[in-house]
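Dear H.,

Thanks for agreeing to be a second pair of eyes. The structure we're designing against is below in token form, covering all 122 positions.
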């Protein structure tokens, strides 16, 4: 089993930045695909970004391209989401996820964190 714990969420003004972190435990995720999803109030959860096992391939939803950057540190069993130029529509609970498949891009993940709230004020 893989446990995922997100951190770094909070309240920020539009145009600001936040960096989310997600630490994995239970087993090493160095060969896993890792990703970030988000769910806004009244909306379905949506894919935000993914990174393959080596960090050499990344994938983003169109609405965050050029503003968000996903990265990973396999030595620390951690995945990050750097979010710049934040907009009110980025407000959501952000979840990290891990998948044991080497398929990339991946949108169907096996393990999920509990989420961290990101609120962007206008």
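And this is the sequence the design step returned. I haven't edited it by hand at all.
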């Amino acid at each position: 089993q893989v446990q995922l714990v997100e951190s770094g969420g909070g309240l920020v003004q539009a145009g600001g930045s936040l960096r989310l972190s997600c630490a994995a435990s239970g087993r090493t995720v160095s060969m896993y695909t890792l990703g970030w999803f988000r769910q806004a109030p009244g909306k379905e959860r949506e894919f935000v970004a993914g990174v393959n096992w080596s960090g050499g391939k990344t994938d983003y939803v169109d609405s965050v391209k050029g503003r968000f950057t996903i990265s990973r540190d396999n030595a620390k069993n951690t995945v990050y989401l750097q979010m710049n130029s934040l907009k009110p529509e980025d407000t959501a609970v952000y979840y990290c996820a891990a998948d044991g498949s080497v398929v990339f891009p991946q949108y169907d993940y096996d393990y999920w964190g509990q989420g961290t709230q990101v609120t962007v004020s206008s």
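Two observations from my side: The chain has no helices and eleven strands. The radius of gyration is 13 Å.

Warmly,
E.
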